[in-house]
Amino acid sequence: MLKTVKFVASHPMNRHRKVASIFGYLKWQIISRAQSEHVFNWIEDSQLVVANGMTGATGNIYCGLHEFNDKAFFLHVLREDDTFLDIGANVGSYSVLAGKVCGSKIIAFEPDEGTASSYERNMSANDISDYDLHRVALGPQDGSISFTIGLDTVNRVSDRDDLPTHKVPMKKLDDIPNATSATFIKMDVEGFEAKVLEGAEKVLNSPSLIALQTECDDPAVETILNQSGLFRYYYNAEDRTLTLEPDDGNKAANALFIKDKATVEARIASAPYRSFRGKEF
């Protein structure tokens, strides 16, 4: 608990309200034990439906934007009528921001049935209708593949005998209708990224694609993305700058790759400022 409290108090969206953030964390510990599900009022009238055990989603309750630089970049770059690909959508926190705050079209992928149902609950809570949810895993070819059960945000493709798994359908991203119109991709597939990208050549080389975020910091993934003109950058959301090297101000949970830097910088410069919990970004 102490480690979590330190993280919450030092988060960029809580540094100006450390005491309030710690009380908020403790309040959630009580609420989450009294209620199985909680509706969290989020940025610009968006809502996030959070149930007990959703470890990734609760980070947004603690911190406003759990992955601050990642999500702030996303909000600064995405625009109305863009197409956002949410690969490994989980319960849909990125999709809520895309659809409710930015007004973008969404194509999402979440193979776990229970998690996909939670995703749809969040879309419904925010009156988001312009989305397609594909309950499939993505990979290098069509077929089926083993997928873990009961691991929350780290459910993943797995061939390990010591983990409970079930079979889910697998598709190539290039075969998904309208995927080649993507503007922005968020990919979080717990180590299966390179295999997903093997089936995404057309999408990666589409002229509409300007940026991609992935949790996987893997040289093999970076090589594939570089071949499609996507190169690694680091974003400092507080001063809205892109750099080629990391520093204390642009620490991120996800690796950011940009294809069209000029377009991205123009979007960042013209993006409206967002405000939440007294923090403007």
In short:
This protein has 281 residues and is an alpha/beta fold. It contains 10 helices and 15 strands. The mean pLDDT is 91.
List keywords for this structure.
eight-stranded mixed beta sheet; three-stranded mixed beta sheet; alpha/beta; globular; single chain; 281 residues
Helix-strand makeup class: alpha/beta
Let me know the number of strands. Answer: 15
Helical region count? 10
Radius of gyration: 18 Å
Shape descriptor: globular
Given as residue ranges, the uncertain stretches (5+ residues, pLDDT < 50) are none
Portion in beta strands: 15-25%
The biggest sheet, with number of strands, parallel, antiparallel or mixed sense and barrel status, is:
8 strands, mixed
Distance between the termini: 28 Å
**Helical residue percent?**
25-40%
What is the residue-mean pLDDT, rounded to a whole number? 91
* Strand adjacency order, main sheet: 5-4-3-9-10-13-11-12
SSE pattern, N- to C-terminal: HHEEHHEHEHEEEEEHHEHEEEHEE
